[in-house]
Amino acid sequence: MDSSNTMLSFLTSHSLTSNVYKLGHSLGQSLAHYYGNTNSIIDTNSTINSNSNSNIISGLSSVASWSLPNFNIILTNYQTWWLDLVNKDPIHVLIETLLISFLAYLIFYQKKKDSRKQMKDRLSEQEIKFLLQDWKLNGRLPLEYDNSGDADADADDHVSDGADADDADMDTDIIHKNDIIIQEMKGAKLTLTIRNHTRNSISNTNPDSNHKTKHLFVKKKQTSSTPAAASNFNHLHEKDSITITALNFATYDYLGMACPDLDNSTDNDNSNSNSNNNDVIKEACIQALSKYGCGSCGPRGFYGTIDAHLDLEQAMAQFCHTEGAILYSDGASCAASTVAAFAKRGDLLVVDEGIYEALGTGVTLSRANIKYFKHNDMQDLKRVLQRIQATDESLGRKQNDQRRFIVVEALYKNYGTVCPLDELVKLKEEFCYRLILDESFSFGAMGKTGRGALEHFGLKPMQHAEIVIVNLENSMGSIGGITIGNEEVVDHQRLSGAGYCFSASSPPFLAAAAQASLKRMEAEPQILDTLKVNVSYFYSTLLAELDGIIPNKLMITSRENISPIVFLQLTKDDDAIISRKQQIVIFDAIAKKCLLNGVFVVSTGRHVMHHLHKVPPPALRLTIMAKQSKADINTAIKVLKHAATDVLRK
Question: Which residues pair with 623 in a beta bridge?
């Protein structure tokens, strides 16, 4: 009690706090007086009749008559406190005034200024229409960094190798600026549009003739950048575009699940031409859309799981003979999320340096300790594992002190090579590692029943590979990814898989499409047999027809007679070292000549380098499909031979 009185006397007597005390004291008295009057009014109103309006008015008048003088007292005390503070501490008052003024500026003026600026910067309807038409004509900018700014110089250097300047001047923008638009895929063919190229500049040459194609790709002319020119854009777009129907040697749809048969499919000499399941994927999608609608409206762990997802997971687990499966809405996120779900900081990953972008992203996101071994080199893998073992012994560390995984692809996307799983599994078991195996590009292409490289080598999931990743976007003709394994592997990802927990789930019709593909693989095993026959026939014919070019100029780097992904690289020649950019120009020229003669192949080399530990060399990539006939393969190899001879001649 004494301390309270001492503090009160200090507040009332001190020069800096006396006015603050008076202000607070008067405010407290005013509130107490107001509270007392309010209670008396409530008590009075509770006793009077509800129709006594005069009593209520008189009560409100008493409150108003009380409020005004008390408010004047508060203002007077505040004025006294403020003036006293100005006299005794003007710097403090100045700083507070500036801060209050700045706060008022932000609240009242800046907000309106930003709003006015947004209205001023907003595009008009005419400008929006102009930009949209310009995008349709010229396309968007590339997503990747274009480091080929001196492509013209590289092309000039390539002229000395025998190509004419007109051929070497062919623009490489066809890939960078997305000038190729695939309109339709049916059977072994696809229809595509090449934009920004006049019809008069195209000459569809015969591979058997000596007539050369001149000015295949003309550079774009500058168009007016004003909205007044927008009315001519559609006309220019039609004039500068061509539509081509070409043989499909570019997509990863080995089994043709997403490519319905042509109406004249009876011309195909393969056994699958008699299939009556012409477009089962489309039918499954239509039925799912009619039942579920389009979207799934949320992540799997919340309210995005639909019975179509569970049915696909169960069907995939049964097909692969595993205890469970987990579905991701995207193939790339499936690979990245699966690796990051199991490997954390402090764990160890032993990784093939040739893994593709999505798997490499998962390795990076895991933040684990990473050791790379040479691509597909089991001797180097053994060396790395032995070095780790020696380090453990020197540190006295046990093998189970950290989680350890070997990460590989079964069929490598960027190389077409096949991992020797039989040798790798022996090393895995010898050094006590778990195996994360990506079967994205081998599922549906390898093994007797299409179950992938594990089946090809006589191995089993869960037993020889603890975690297996399957991409639905290749041989399955759908979108998404699935990880298969035992119940612990699957259940762990339902809480730790970032792509599963935080991404919207796959639309039900895509799950239905993947399940329809799976059923067709089981019901029509002849599709798989046809693919293997086509792969073997392609390699044998390629080696026979390109004799002299292979291996003198080009070499096959993919696994012959097994891999449906065929890679052709330039032969390494110490006497004529060619830069990477020059190689890209060469393969671009070959791919364009093939395209204009009715065969669609892919020129690689512009990889997203920051996602790769080892960037593969530029190459020409061809993929084999079950829907391709022997006549299609003969045509493709014939066109390829003509294009390669024309570009690579000395």
Answer: 565
